[in-house]
């Protein structure tokens, strides 16, 4: 279920754009 989330997360992390967003979501 969270497989897609992990994939999307990896893409975002790679981009470095979700750096701040990642912190909020995490």
UniProtKB/TrEMBL annotation:
The protein's name: Uncharacterized protein
Annotated TM spans: 6-25
Keyword line: Membrane, Transmembrane, Transmembrane helix
